[in-house]
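step 4 of 6: structure.
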Amino acid sequence: MSTSTSDNPAVAADALVRVRGVSFRQGTRAIYEGVDLDIPRGKLTAILGPSGTGKTTLLRLIGGQWRPQAGTVHFDGIDVHAQSRQQLYTLRKRMGLLFQNGALLTDLSVFDNVAFPLREHTTLPESIIRDLVLMKLEAVGLRGARDLFPEQLSGGMARRVALARAIALEPELVMYDEPFTGQDPISMGVLMRLIRSLNEALGITSIVVSHDVEEVLSIADYAYIVGGGKVLDQGTPERIRASSSELVQQFLTGAPDGPIAFHYKGKPYLQDLQGTGA
Amino acid sequence: MSGMFTVLANFLAGLGRAQFFLLSVLAAIPSALMRPRLLVQQLYMVGVLSLIIIVISGSFVGMVLALQGFRTLVRFGAEESLGVFVALVIVRELGPVVTALLFAGRAGSALAAEIGLMKATDQLSAMEMMAVDPIRRVIAPRFIAGVLAMPLLAGIFCVMAIGIAGGHAVGVELLGVDAGSYWSQIRGAVEIDDIVQSFIKSIVFGAAISWIAVYQGYHAAPTSEGVSRATTSTVVVSSLSILALDFVLTAFMFR
């Protein structure tokens, strides 16, 4: 059913991120068991899957925040988890991660939030930082909101500011963690257009983790469906939509019952009501 | 019995983690000192914003000590020694200890809650992903500010309690003790060693409170309950540590 990543030359040829045989457990719960993934350079790749399947975990593994128990993650040919702390920080300057809630620094204004990575990592004069920040804010349509503080922003605006901050250092890879969750249709449309246009205009590689299937497939070049610790399917959006897998179809159509059961595992209903059995 | 061992093992493991954490904070201090703006900002947050509670408490503690001391001293006709009584009690004990307890409640809890919330809202993770070390950028400046602010606040507490609105106001202005003997007896009895030892105590207390607060905040569970627990633990553990450290330091210093 699922195509192996290495069998797919279109993907494997020029991958910016290469995940091989990654297994990751949290306590006794296995999140990933021997997962292979390739994120093609310059493309927008979607990682889709039901809630709780470890999509965010994957981004943290790629960013080197968490370490897999087995397997490797390579970013532009560099083994992320074989780096020293300092080398990892150098590598992270080439990545941006947009957190689900924006994760803006609440004691800084919108302007200072976007200027934060520039001030931390460059010695640029303040006049140039100002120009750069205004350019990034203009790109996300929030130049006029530069003096506001995070608590004054709506959820969608906070994510756009976080996006401006994530692209401040002009990274090669931007990872979006559930960018559309809890957004009204207008905000969602704005974010989708932004993610797509930034991918094209800046030539960056994008990974969008989401469970908003239709929205993400409409902007993605390639998609992976993860679940049960494995890659269930992968391919272009058209191929995913035409997938014959019951699990993929259940996920795409949002059917409440199917290979992923509606009921959490437990003893039989009748037995439970009668209070019998272990 | 095995339950007791588990509690002891958990306690020792926690202490070990806290020590490793302290080492990483100490290693980040030189780079934090290179950014005075961050330091000044944190000195304002933990020091200047604690001033009101320290000034008011210092005054009241001084006033109460003067009232109590006068009642006893006057029985022996020794009310002229009121200044010595107030000054020694304040400089040696109450100055650093009460300031530290108030500092733990006011600044320690704020530090733990702020850092815990930063963790719960992914701000610390976001910094890491932006290749900014949160220990250097967030923790070290707060730790240094706590260590620096504590002796300054303890000094202000002592000044308020002995002079201005405290012991002097009640003893001299209200109860009629001669101002000349109040101050001259203080100058005669309080030695430079007393002040140095008081200063050492307040630095040790400041370091202990800051260490506990940043550790609890940084290791808080990223939930509202986790942040609340970290804040409570900071105040409880800091207060007990201050009292225990005070005993140890006093035993060594005033032999």
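step 5 of 6: annotate
 - Chain A touches chain B at residues 63, 65, 89-90, 92-93, 95-97, 99-101, 103-106, 116-117, 120-121, 162, 165, 169 (CB under 8 Å).
 - The CA atoms of residues 57 and 150 of chain A lie 26 Å apart.
step 6 of 6: archive
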